[in-house]
Write a structure and sequence with these properties.
Strand 4 and strand 5 form a beta hairpin. Strands 3-1-6-7-8-9-10 form a seven-stranded mixed β-sheet, with helices on both faces. It is globular, with a radius of gyration of 22 Å. The protein has two domains: 175 residues, Rossmann fold (3-Layer(aba) Sandwich); 262 residues, pyruvate-formate lyase- activating enzyme (Alpha-Beta Horseshoe). By secondary structure, it is α/β, with parallel strands linked by helices. Helix content is 35%, strand content 17%. The structure holds cobalamin and iron/sulfur cluster. Cobalamin binds next to strand 2, helix 1, strand 6, strand 7 and helix 5.
Length: 479
């Protein structure tokens, strides 16, 4: 059957998802604009096609649906998604799955898309299908695109329109015979030639009023924020992280002046006063970093900045910390991961120099910024004794705030493969529906629930005199 010409694209971002832990705490409900889709939309539009974005989460932020096991999704319901798809009448639909535990929701959106418009190709992309395509592909999906798809989505449209050979599209996966065809070559776009994200296609006001919960700046909605990336990729390959699948460890930075110009645009056009940087690793390349921080300080004294995805501790020293403070950073989220030296050396490629951490924390505080430590507990090599030691060590660095995650296996990582090989998953583990706040990996001698409970106890004990826990967890009140 000849392919219908593609002129219009609908891009969809899936539901939000949160869990209530057995100890009663509720994960924080967030609503942040889908930057990846804004980038894709910009490239698709630049190539001459019409494009719309539907963010299911923001359109139905207050609508919660229990999906079992104390887990809730939030966003609009299937019927409404179906009506929006029908009304939009696109010629192709692209659905984003950047976080692995949205796989189930993404599958259901694909079903809804096929029910609404059975002849329209459905494409899925993002971190999860990049790392685990065989886990994502299903009868409702025509194509997966792996990796960064700024160019490849346009290539796919043009290939479909021209009838050319699909297998030439970089990163493409489609069903073939009884298996899949996978083009293993991914695209790594030049970050300086990409058009700016198409924010005009999203209702940014909705995110500013619903927004990103941010304790340090007070309640949601008080600041107009924008999100940006100054680089893509990370040169490291940590055992638990999916970033290397995506970027092939190719770190690519944008020109500093272009970043500055983009911030200026957001300040003047939208009145934005806070920027969150979502780079994989903002801190790579010392000279570029210094130039960027210096220019932020000179140009944006009325704005504040934050790197949400974590700071690589080894790239900090007195000079960089002072520059960060001068540039308007209020909090440094230090990605320590494990305080254990052996774990650092074997599993964490960035190999944080643990001995320097208290020195960095002291300097961050002296410069008037909040020092928050990010930790992970529950690596497969941890014994009960090691888990206890880890929790004790976390308390000793002198952080203003701590954040402790339970180690979770993301499909496509070495950690995941290790757990499969050694049969370390608990029986109820479902890679499509990972519960971040429970233990999913079996540790010898550590009863299940021990880490989850201790994580909460240690956090409350540490934070109770530093923040108002009730305010911080105000979301709990709802249930
Ligand atoms: C912003 C962000 C969030 C936001 C949510 C973003 C959203 N809209 O849903 C918040 C803060 C809520 C968040 C939370 C978490 N996050 Co997060 N987050 C990010 C971050 C920093 C930026 C994402 C981004 O915009 N990147 C920039 C854009 C340009 O890239 P992109 O989105 O990947 O899009 C490109 C491609 O993926 C592809 N693409 C994307 N969509 C589509 C769709 C189609 C159709 C196609 C063809 C292609 C395609 O093309 C795009 C352009 O090249 C990434 C790290 C990173 N730098 O990517 C982590 C990341 C996505 N998060 C991650 C994780 C693990 C989490 C948490 C689980 C952390 C935790 N333990 O709590 C939580 C989940 C919380 C929950 N309740 O579920 C992992 C996901 C890995 C995985 N496979 O699951 C990442 C990759 C970080 C990492 N390296 O480990 N996160
Ligand atoms: S340094 Fe961070 S982004 Fe890079 S591979 Fe390690 S965890 Fe992932």
């Amino acid at each position: 059957m000849p392919q219908r010409m593609i002129k219009k694209v609908l891009l969809i971002s899936p539901h939000g998802k949160i869990t209530i832990t057995r100890e009663g705490s509720r994960e924080r409900k967030l609503a942040v604009p889908p930057l990846g889709l804004a980038y894709l939309a910009a490239s698709i539009r630049t190539a001459g096609y019409d494009v719309e974005i539907l963010d299911i989460l923001i359109e139905g932020y207050d609508r919660e649906e229990e999906v079992g096991n104390n887990t809730f999704i939030y966003g609009i319901e299937s019927d409404k998604i179906r009506r929006i798809i029908e009304k939009s009448a696109p010629d192709i639909i692209g659905i984003s799955c950047i976080i692995s535990n949205r796989a189930r929701e993404v599958s259901s959106i694909c079903r809804t898309a096929k029910e609404a418009l059975p002849d329209i190709p459905v494409v899925v992309g993002g971190q999860h299908p990049t790392g685990a395509p065989e886990m994502v592909m299903n009868p409702d999906i025509d194509y997966l695109l792996r990796g960064e798809c700024d160019h490849t989505f346009v290539d796919l449209i043009e290939t479909l329109n021209s009838g050319n050979e699909l297998s030439a599209v970089k990163g493409i996966v489609f069903k073939q015979d009884k298996g899949f065809f996978i083009n293993p070559v991914q695209d790594f776009p030049d970050v300086n030639s990409l058009p700016r994200p198409a924010w005009d296609l999203l209702k940014l006001e909705k995110y500013w009023t619903t927004g990103m919960c941010d304790y340090e700046i007070g309640a949601t909605g008080k600041k107009k924020f924008m999100i940006m990336i100054t680089s893509r990729g990370c040169p490291h390959k940590c055992y638990f992280c999916t970033s290397p699948n995506m970027s092939g460890r190719r770190f690519r930075a944008r020109d500093v002046d272009d970043v500055i110009e983009e911030i200026e645009k957001y300040r003047s056009e939208y009145g934005v006063n806070r920027i969150y940087f979502w780079d994989d690793n903002f801190f790579i390349g010392r000279e570029r970093l210094k130039e960027l921080l210096d220019k932020l300080a000179r140009n944006f004294s009325d704005m504040t900045f934050e790197v949400t995805s974590g700071t690589e501790a080894n790239s900090l020293d007195d000079e960089i910390i002072e520059l960060l403070a001068r540039a308007g950073f209020k909090k440094i989220f230090l990605a320590v991961e494990s305080p254990n030296e052996a774990t650092q050396k074997t599993l964490i490629d960035k190999n944080v120099n643990i001995a320097r951490v208290p020195i960095l924390v002291k300097k961050i505080k002296e410069c008037g910024m909040i020092a928050e430590g990010s930790f992970m507990v529950g690596f497969p090599d941890e014994s009960l004794e090691r888990v206890d030691t880890t929790f004790e060590m976390i308390k000793k660095f002198g952080f203003d705030r701590i954040s402790i995650s339970i180690v979770n296996p993301l499909p496509g990582t070495e950690l995941y493969d290790h757990c499969i090989k050694n049969k370390l998953f608990f029986d109820d583990f479902d890679p499509k529906d990972i519960r971040w706040s429970q233990e999913n990996i079996r540790l010898e001698g550590v009863p299940r629930g021990y880490i989850a409970q201790k994580r909460r106890d240690v956090w409350i004990e540490y934070m109770k005199n530093k923040i108002d826990i009730d305010v911080y967890e105000k979301e709990n009140i709802k249930l």
